[in-house]
């Protein structure tokens, strides 16, 4: 039976051997939720990049839409910030365009996970797609929580617990203490996910920075239940599960 | 109001600034429980060391009792393993003797935390002493979980949650997601601590290695309620709180 493990921070990735595994990159607030939304709304592919410069360069050279934030706020000089609502605005054409996105934590987590056999992006918005992909692969899964500047984040962990619960019939989800803890936290959070996560300092910070509509949106379970962003060569594309 | 934060692994210590803080080193199974027991049973002071060689050398040169384990098993050629029962055996004189102890995870966590203003050792056995010390100091507290080879450990985390609960009137225990998660896990574990922790892979491994009496003993709340091991110069000594 394949195993599901959870890495609470990119800082702990050196403890894991990713080879042959499926890496699920999670940055619920908001990079992974925004990438799922972008692909769900018809963006053709996504370049996640580390620096604002690289993000801007991709926009200028390849005509990508550009999205960037720093410390939770939209960065100046880019088409979009890191809010999923940027892709839901009817006045902006996103379908068929490429997106270049720079984020504080999510991009770094993804870049550090490329040794995995398959790298996909997970969010509450596409939980079912991630679970279906993991089942179809039948490989060990490592959920890589982007965290907040390397620190443990409640929302990414709780997502890991939700995925573990979905996969508990087909995967060993009791072999690591991290997965056990995430499962328990998810079970506590599940009856009122938004209320639970509003305790988090990080979530409160986000809510003070932008409208809380982002937060509510990012918690919608399976709003894009068939959108699975998968890393291919140098970009994320939506693949069928 | 001072803040209580929790570091789930020594690997995450570089993210924390320990200066001016109280560091509480936790390795419930079993280094911190054993050190508390040793000092509670009259050992004069403890030298925690990283290597078996250093541990043996302290025994030969300074006549210390020596205690060492590797991967959960007693190491060959030392007076004791890492079981607290080594200090409870009526046939062995420990009172007044110094102890040199080498452990897989606990020593490393302690050595990496020496930038703190005060470094103490915490276990369920001396929870009240740790809480009283933290209150008396009135400084920010960082609970440093030794973990298992750098990985997140349920039992150390749950101890962090128990300490946070005890200090919740006097400390900010809601400012970090790690502390919130630990509090929630402790609240789940509290009604049946042993049963809860028996889910852990690490705990099951320990129980398969030695008698489960160690495990039960290490969970006894406040069996040494006034024993506080504190780092002084080059050793741990029991200080009054």
Give structural notes:
2 copies of one chain form a homodimer. Chain A has 241 residues and is α/β, with parallel strands linked by helices. Chain A has a domain at 4-33 and 104-239: Alpha-Beta Complex (putative 2-phosphosulfolactate phosphatase). In chain A, 35% of the residues lie in helices and 20% in strands. Chain A has 9 helices and 10 strands. The first copy, chain A, has helices at 31-40, 52-62, 106-111, 127-137, 154-166, 177-189, 193-197, 201-209, 213-218, and strands at 4-7, 22-26, 45-49, 65-70, 73-74, 98-102, 118-122, 141-145, 228-232, 235-239. In chain A, the strands form 3 sheets. Chain A has a 4-stranded parallel beta sheet. A 4-stranded mixed beta sheet of chain A has the order 3-6-4-5, sandwiched between helices. In chain A, helix 4 crosses helix 5 and helix 5 (154-166) crosses helix 6. The longest helix of chain A has 13 residues, at 154-166. Chain A is globular, with a radius of gyration of 16 Å. The model of chain A has no long low-confidence stretch (mean pLDDT 92). The interface between A and B is medium-sized, with 28 and 28 residues.
């Amino acid at each position: 039976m394949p195993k599901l493990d959870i890495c609470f921070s990119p800082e702990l990735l050196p403890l894991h051997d990713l080879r042959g595994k499926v890496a699920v990159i999670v940055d619920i607030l908001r990079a992974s939720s925004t990438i799922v939304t972008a692909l769900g709304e018809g963006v053709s592919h996504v370049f996640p990049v580390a620096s604002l410069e690289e993000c801007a360069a991709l926009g200028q050279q390849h005509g990508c839409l550009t999205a960037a934030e720093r410390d939770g706020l939209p960065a100046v000089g880019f088409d979009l910030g890191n809010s999923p609502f940027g892709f839901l605005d009817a006045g902006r054409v996103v379908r068929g365009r490429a997106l270049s996105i720079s984020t504080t934590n999510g991009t770094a987590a993804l870049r550090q996970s490329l040794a995995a056999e398959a790298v996909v992006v997970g969010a509450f918005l596409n939980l079912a797609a991630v679970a279906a992909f993991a089942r179809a692969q039948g490989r060990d899964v490592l959920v890589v929580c982007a965290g907040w500047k390397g620190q443990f984040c409640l929302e990414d962990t709780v997502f890991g617990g939700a995925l573990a619960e979905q996969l508990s019939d087909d995967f060993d989800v009791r072999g690591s203490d991290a997965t056990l803890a995430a499962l328990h936290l998810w079970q506590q959070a599940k009856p009122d996910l938004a209320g639970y996560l509003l305790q988090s300092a990080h979530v409160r910070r986000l809510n003070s920075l932008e409208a809380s509509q982002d937060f509510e949106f990012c918690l919608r379970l399976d709003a894009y239940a068939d959108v699975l962003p998968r890393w291919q060569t140098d970009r994320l594309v939506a693949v069928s599960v």
